[in-house]
Design a protein that fits this description.
The protein has 648 residues and is an alpha/beta fold. It is built from 24 helices and 9 strands.
């Protein structure tokens, strides 16, 4: 039996009134080691490791039978990855046909055709295409374009002085990779790639701008798309990708200025630079499946330099990741049969119902919202679709043909994925579809489908514990549920209505009041610096959506706990009142630590705040926390009542 509260992790020398995160997790933070093949440690990572081992055992038990079944596909794909001897013998040989095709690029049209081929085969395209619910008509799938083409984590890495050392390391990495691939002019090609990517990055939207769903909804005809980007041969791009023109009759362009900006680059930038870039994208896209010299080079930059990892992940772990990426639902179907109990789903159904009731109660009483907007918000809440554990139906992989060669299997899987994407464009949205696998330790809200999704693998301690009291579970998984519901009403989700349609359902005064409250939350987080990090701080505007989710999630989880019969002043257990156990459950859920290198990447690119602030900054805004621990002006977590923010 897993204890509801892990007291051994606590640091009694730290008062919860001063630092709840370190009071609850301090001893663990001081003693826990991050595994050498990881960039972080904590509750999320522990569950991910457990799921990974469970999936590994499942895969290892499957034997290829040549019968065309999903089990046969799983076994073949995994075996092709684990055939290390063949992979080492081949070296760079699998890249030669791709390099030959790139060498033949002699015009912008030929380049566009290769870019389409790269899209089909998953090799880091310049212009990405994907399908998703149409924000203007969420009952159907539409096709979207998106900016792509970079090798560093974000456009900011190409322009900000704080990332200069990473750019230098990236250039060294490019030189190393081109040399391993057999190019005598590795230094020249590397410099060309970095120069071209810097030019591409100049047209990328930044992370904050990408949060604006309205700005990214730009439906246009194929003719208008062509007119937007003169010099880019869309016909050749389509032909290279094997996409029928009829499927692109209407396209939603996510970042119009990106296409406007890169079209002249394709038309006029030296072809030799584009050929170098295309070679790099081929190497980068396949390096994880090539010989150890390529794998080691990739690790040294992307995992060691960027994330601080000390060791390469064992081959079996990388093999499991490949199988899950290609056949995730086939694996998930077997996973839930072995590791998900019906009573877990029943308990979650009850928790979700109580969280929705609590949100309804809160919205009905909001003092900053007019009745017109309130009715729209309640209507949206009533149309939320919870999905728990695993999908109602599983994906069909029957047209995916796999053999014994690893690179051939990877390319075939990527091509299969594009065909699956194209087959859905213009068709009704499949409401049973999931965008995470059951074995994934995470959860999500989908604004265009107004659904909240909780995979099986997250429904375990420290998030959900069947042996724990309600107070601890509501503080942990209850707040996770509340967080995902809250995304329906954050800065992004609030732009869509109950049907997932991009629509302004707000009265102007209410939108102004909401944005004022959100701005105050931005101010609370902006500039916070996590412990142990030299350089970088929280971007309040980038993280505001997740912070709104956390704020609403915990506050509504507390209200839901009360609706479920929770008594804040009830009988203490292990020296803690029920209210104190609720907030301890919350803090336990954020137990985690991250390498400084990985933390810098998170601060620059991730819409989530570091764990210590997700825990501590949120509770500073909740009156119930002050009451639970008797907090006053002398305590470090005190925030003046006039500065506390309550949105939902």
């Amino acid at each position: 039996m897993t204890e509801a509260i892990e007291f051994a992790n606590q640091d009694a020398a730290v008062r919860p009134q001063d630092d709840l995160f370190r009071h609850v997790n301090g001893n663990w933070l001081a003693t826990a080691q991050i595994d050498p093949d990881r960039s972080s440690a904590g509750g999320f990572v522990d569950l991910t490791d457990t799921a990974e081992r469970d999936v590994h055992s499942l895969i290892e038990a499957i034997v290829a039978k040549g019968d065309g079944s999903d089990d046969d596909r799983i076994a073949r794909l995994y075996a092709s990855f684990m055939d290390e001897q063949t992979v080492e013998e081949l070296g760079a040989t699998p890249l030669i046909p791709i390099f030959d095709a790139i060498a033949a690029i002699d015009s912008p049209s030929a380049l566009a055709r290769h870019l389409g081929w790269s899209l089909r085969h998953g090799l880091s395209p310049l212009v990405a295409l994907y399908e998703e619910s149409d924000p203007g008509n969420p009952e159907r799938y539409a096709v979207f374009t998106a900016q792509a083409g970079l090798g560093l984590p974000d456009e900011a890495y190409y322009r900000l002085d704080e990332h200069a050392a990473i750019r230098e390391a990236y250039l060294t990495h490019l030189q190393r990779v081109f040399s391993i691939a057999g190019f005598a002019d590795a230094d020249e090609q590397a410099s060309s790639v970095l120069e071209l990517e810097t030019a591409i990055a100049a047209h990328h939207w930044d992370r904050v701008r990408l949060r604006d769903l309205r700005a990214m909804y730009n439906p246009m005809t194929l003719e208008a798309l062509v007119a937007l980007s003169p010099g880019f041969d869309w016909d050749s791009y389509r032909e290279g990708a094997g996409i029928d023109a009829a499927l692109l009759a209407e396209v939603i362009v996510s970042q119009p200025s990106f296409l406007e900006g890169i079209a002249p680059l394709v038309a006029s930038h030296p072809l030799e630079a584009w050929r170098s870039w295309a070679r790099w994208k081929a190497i980068s896209g396949l390096s994880g499946y090539l010989s150890s010299d390529f794998v080691d080079a990739r690790f040294d930059f992307y995992e060691k330099t960027l994330s601080g990892n000390e060791e390469q992940r064992p081959r079996w772990k990388r093999g499991v990741a490949l199988v899950e990426g290609v056949l995730g639902e086939a694996v998930g179907r077997s996973y839930v049969a072995l590791h998900f109990k019906p009573e877990q789903k029943a308990a979650m159904d009850e928790l979700v119902a109580n969280l929705l009731r609590a949100y309804q109660s809160s919205i009905e009483r909001l003092d900053w919202m007019t009745d017109e907007t309130r009715q729209e918000a309640l209507h949206k809440l009533s149309k939320f679709t919870p999905k728990i554990g695993y999908p109602a139906k599983w994906r069909d992989y029957s047209s995916l043909e796999l053999g014994d060669g690893l690179i051939a299997n990877v390319l075939a899987a990527n091509s299969f994925e594009l065909d699956w994407t194209l087959s859905r464009i213009g068709r009704p949205v499949d409401r049973d579809e999931w965008q995470m696998y059951p074995q994934t330790v995470n959860a999500y809200y989908h604004p265009l489908r107004n659904e909240i999704v909780f995979p099986a693998a997250i429904l375990q301690p420290p998030f959900f514990n069947a042996d724990a009291d309600d107070a601890v579970n509501y503080g942990a998984i209850g707040a996770v549920i509340g967080h995902e519901i809250g995304h329906g009403f954050d800065d992004k989700g609030s732009t869509c209505d109950g049907d997932g349609r991009l629509r302004d359902w707000w009265q102007a005064a209410d939108r102004e009041a909401f944005e004022s409250l959100a701005d105050r939350l931005v101010g609370q987080y902006d500039g916070l610096v996590p412990e142990g990090v030299d350089g970088g701080s929280v971007n309040g505007k980038l993280t505001v959506g997740e912070n709104i989710g956390d704020l609403g999630g915990l506050g509504i989880a507390y209200r839901a706990w009360l609706l479920a019969g929770g008594d804040p002043e009830g009988e203490p257990v292990d020296g803690l009142t029920p209210a104190q156990r609720f907030f301890t459950g919350w803090a336990q859920a954020w137990r985690g630590k991250r390498r400084p290198e990985a933390m810098k990447v998170l601060l620059a690119t991730d819409p989530h705040s570091p764990n210590e602030f997700r825990c501590n900054q949120i509770v500073r805004n909740l009156d119930a926390f002050y009451e639970a621990f008797g907090i006053d002006e002398e305590d470090a977590l005190w925030l003046d009542p006039t500065e506390r923010v309550t949105i939902w």
